[in-house]
Amino acid sequence: MKTILKKIKKSNRVAVFGHQSPDGDCISCLYAITFLCKQLNKTVDAFIDDDIPTRYKFIDTSFINNKIFDKENYDLFISVDVADKHLLGKYKDAFNKDNQTISIDHHAIRDLVSDITYVEKTASCAEILYKLLKLSKFKLDSRVSTFLYMGVADDTGCFLYDNTTTDSHYIAGKLIENGADMSSVNYHLFKLVTNKTHELMKKIDEIVEEKDGIRYVVVNQKFMQKNDCQKSDFGDYANTLLNYENTKIAFTMFEKQNKVYSLSFRCLKNYNVAEVASKLGGGGHNQAAGGKISGDEKECLQKVLNLVSEELKRGDKNANR
Ligand SMILES: [Mn+2]
């Protein structure tokens, strides 16, 4: 962490990056690293090769993507919460050998090479950024505290997921002490059901499938056009599916483009969906992971179901030991 601070101090203009399909943790870390660079009197711009989901619009995210990216304008490139180079999208070339690069992350399985890599398997990457900010000795204001609280809360599912540690609680407590607006974060991320979501939940209920502990839904473009909605309107729906009795593994399969599906997996403690996701070119955490698959809908679904069933059997065996 000291090396990271030194490196930032030596630079002048910094570009910071988060991952595609940004979540609260990624947005939180982007804000925190931007805050740190500004405190150190650096010019800093933040980029994500994607739109910010409506779910996070309650907080001011206008600091992201407000410049046109030109590699030549920067002498340091930092990624936060990015496990895989491809998740940088069109910005992935910034992480080549000729550039000064840093990555700060909490994913165990990673594929992004940089000059300095700091990985700690914390529940959220925001916890690492909190420690880095503490080390820098700058006072955390209520705004950066709110962002960081959002990161911890989002990646721990409001402290409900099994990845939650005493550290997550401790850091969240410290952030509240520093003025984090936890009620606003928790209301928008975990309580609010928009009218649109309410309507969609009625419709999607009819197409949810359940079999032997696996609960899933396939949302194709036809469904989305018919109901005038997009993936982000569903929130973290895979997680919702996992809440049902006797469900051990849940997943959603959203048709992002024609015959290209994005997958979200969630599972209970004895199972590991990161394994499933990694077989589909994706990754993530043991209990929450994502991937991609393309082709004919039925064939894709069968392939995913086969992998999930295998994992279910493996996990059941371990659980019965
Ligand atoms: Mn994260």
Verbal overview:
This protein is of the alpha/beta class. It has 2 domains: 2-190, inorganic pyrophosphatase (n-terminal core), CATH 3.90.1640; 195-319, Diaminopimelate Epimerase, Chain A, domain 1 (Roll), CATH 3.10.310.30. The chain has 11 helices and 11 strands. It has a 6-stranded mixed beta sheet. Strands 2-1-3-4-5 form a 5-stranded parallel beta sheet, with helices on one face. Strand 8 (249-257) and strand 9 (260-267) form a beta hairpin. It is globular. The mean pLDDT is 94. The protein binds manganese (II) ion. Manganese (II) ion (MN) is lined by residues 25, 81, 106, 124-125, 155. Residues 25, 81, 106, 124-125, 155 line the site of manganese (II) ion.
- Associated small molecules: manganese (II) ion
Instruction: Write down how many β-strands occur, each being a DSSP E stretch of 2 or more residues.
Output: 11
Q: Tell me about the biggest sheet?
A: 6 strands, mixed
CATH topology of the largest domain: inorganic pyrophosphatase (n-terminal core)
- The domain tally reads 2
What order do the SSEs take from the amino end to the carboxyl end, as H and E? HEHEEEEHHHHHEEHHEEHEEH
Rounded Rg = 20 Å
First-residue to last-residue Cα separation:
41 Å
CATH architecture of the largest domain: Alpha-Beta Complex
Average of pLDDT = 94
Supply the CATH class of the largest domain. Answer: Alpha Beta
Strand composition percent: 15-25%
- Per CATH, the superfamily of the largest domain is inorganic pyrophosphatase (n-terminal core)
Residue share in helix: 25-40%
Number of helices: 11
Unreliable stretches covering 5 or more consecutive residues: none
What shape does the CA trace take? Answer: globular
User: Structural class, please?
Assistant: alpha/beta
| Arrangement of strands in the largest sheet | 6-7-8-9-11-10
